[in-house]
Amino acid sequence: MKSRTEKLPKGRSYPLKPSLLESAVADGGLELPVELTRWDYKRNQTLEATFQPEASKWFEVGFRVTCGAAPSDRMAKIRAALESDGVPKFIRWAKEIEALDAKSPRRRERQYFKWEFPEPEA
Prior knowledge:
Elements: E1 2-5, E2 12-13, H1 18-28, E3 34-39, E4 46-52, E5 62-68, E6 70-71, H2 75-99, E7 111-116
Helix pairs in contact: 1-2
């Protein structure tokens, strides 16, 4: 699995560790390549993925996953939810796509997955 990470300013962290996603991909039996990009875009409080059905100049067929950063003081709650809910949902979504016949119209279209971080408690 390929992984890229943008440096973060003090007080922000990434809830998804590449090793956690890599382990979930292996345990889930995903066969298509998965590429993770972690970056800090304050409005992107999500785990997102795109299924790339055809190779292009920049990407191979497979799953491109992005994970935003969040304030470090919220990290424990976000990380726990991501591990118990977000990543398993991504793996199920990806497995459904892989299970489709290669000639299926749905398998030949770009598809998207989005899981939002839990809201901070008031």
